[in-house]
Here is the input.
Amino acid sequence: MNNLLNIEHQIHEFLNNIVKTMSIDLIVCCERKATAIMRALISEISPDKFLWKWADVLSTAAVAQFDWNSFEGKKILLFDELVHHGNSLKSQEEKLHPYLPDDVELLTAGFAVWEHCQHRPQFCYYAAVDSDTYDDIRTSIIFMLQKHGSLLLDTEHIELSARIQCSIREFYNELARASENGRTYSFVSGAGRTNLTIDQPDIIFKDKFEKVLTPGSNIIGTVSKIRVLERNYETFSILPIFYPNTKCLPTNEWLENLPEFVRDDSLREIKEIQEIFYIVALLGSIELIRSVVVALSDFIHQGKIILEIPKNSFPHLLTMFPKIDINGLHNYISNVVAESKKIKPKRSRRNVCAKNVPNLLLTKLSSRVMCRLVNEYEQLHFDLPKGKSWKELMDIAKTVNQDINLDIGSLTTVVDRLIDSGLVVTDVENITSSKGEPYCIRTFVPEGEVVSAKIRQQTMVRDPECLLAI
Here is the structure.
């Protein structure tokens, strides 16, 4: 616990000193953990929160969407929590520079820097750490995020809050009514919290859902789930997650059907097609919320669950969606929730339940999936996508699960645990179809050279079961 508190204090002190002494106007966070760290510092950690406005934080994934015209003569800090060789930091600098006005001063900061780093940031807290110390700091940061219930992706997801007046098991079983039986599983996270995943939740209004998708997008074998995270014994966060294979050729009809909070003329002349991907993902996740609200409607009316849409859980979305109207988004989701509360669940609670994934088997399967992912990642050719698609990842999990024999429906929790533990990271890759059409897909890769090297070293001398600690 002292180590956890120490890392929080150190990161807070590090950033606070830089923004004050250098008069920083905007912090640009390298994806993924840097944005999650920023959320923890600003919104989650108490009492010494980092006093910084969300309007002055941007993710590197959203630099093309940002209006840089007003930043002439200002100072921008590019922040990455860990800098290994420095290649990632360098590429993010190169990505950012074309968008900046000529007289903008761009500064770089890395909390901890490896001793053999080739491209060093201008500011660092730990200037030259060896490999073991680097890994220890990385582990402490992940534990900090887990302890505060922060997903490593939660800066791009909308979030509802549920306060329960019933047992956790009753709550989870009621949530299971949001999908077919055998698709809702609870598991223990790396920080010892009880979490829940609902895979392939119901689509309540198919006509509204179809309008969210750009024509030609594909949802088969893609990410569609609800994550439920334990914040404390009585409070849970509910995060819908939706990532179709998105065809990034928006039609006039699709643009005209966009809700007011995202309608923007610049979508007709986008600078990066990934902008369309993220908007589709956001709108689709809102539609998934309906399934949860409908499933919980009986308990909501009985007072067993208080479902809230806290306004303070929305401003962080500006880091990924700088063009959206946050208040408009909040009002839109409030209407979706109110509308969904009036609909009766389509399943009896007698016909579904949330099953628990045994922790030993989950960690064993996670280990094997990770080993396989590292092995295949290193054999990829440069002209192929860098990561695995969701379908490919699930195929790997099914293959290595043959002698472990977990329920097929529970395999999605393997990836959730790997992401929450910082062993797998996500990306969005641009893919061209055989017809020459641009698509964006969500992909999954091992989290950097440190993770890959650690796994290779252990599997060289031991069976993959040695990785049960992940």
Remarks:
- The chain has three domains: 2-147, 160-355, 357-467.
- Residues 163 and 235 are 5 Å apart (CA to CA).
- Confidence is low (pLDDT under 50) at residues 466-470.
